[in-house]
Amino acid sequence: MAQKIIQVDAFTDKAFTGNPAAVCLLEKAADETWMQQVAMEMNLSETAFLFPIDNGYDLRWFTPKVEVEMCGHATLASAHVLYEDGHEPSDKTIRFQTLSGELRAVKRGKWIELDFPAIRLNEVSAPGELLDGIGARPRTIRKGSFDYLVELDSETAVRTLSPNFAALARLEYRGLIVTAKSSTEEFDFISRCFFPGLGINEDPVTGSAHCALATFWADRLGKTEFLAYQASVRGGYVRVRVEGDRVHLGGQAITVMQAELI
Fold first, then answer.
1. Among 90, 99, 109, 136, which residue's CB has the most CB atoms within a 10 Å radius?
2. Active site residues
3. pLDDT at residue number 127
4. Which is the CATH superfamily of the domain at 122-244?
């Protein structure tokens, strides 16, 4: 039987911007090798696979190369599909069981808000691969559960950064987040994210990275609510709110394609 697959642009309200994710809504658990092959075929930063379980959905995410422990934009895309296609009513909180524990999604008007764990950061010395790869002088270097986070001097430095991906691919961690305070009042901070070790040189908009960016900028700016912009070529917007050990990520999404795997 053909398997429906839906492509969604996440953290945007305009097609062909934000971060594209494929969503496969299954009837039951699927073979892991098959899921990895589908993700490789889709060739997006993540493909999400979910199926209904008691009180929610089992959710897994695959890049073209590996399964990952946390992914924000493909979770947003999954929630969007469940609400948009009528699998769940718009007033229901959706619960996802994942490798990062229970994650939740709730619809708030045109936005969907995700409930994710906060990622705390430790100040560290930079490994050689990071210094070789970043191509800029860091102001601050931190390390979280998945990534290195580097603060640069300015928004311009973030936007014009041209990393050495071969060097960054040798990092022991998932990848690198670079960030700076926004130079305008429109946003609180901007960022870019690089994960060449996962087969993703630059991720367009990274929800999970904002779980670390949230705690970093909460300490820096002395507040808990932000509007952030990820300054990739496609670009995307993330509403961020820190509440204790949780981070709430708000985003919009739009379906751009539906197909069948035959």
1. 136
2. 46
3. 86
4. Diaminopimelate Epimerase; Chain A, domain 1 (3.10.310.10)
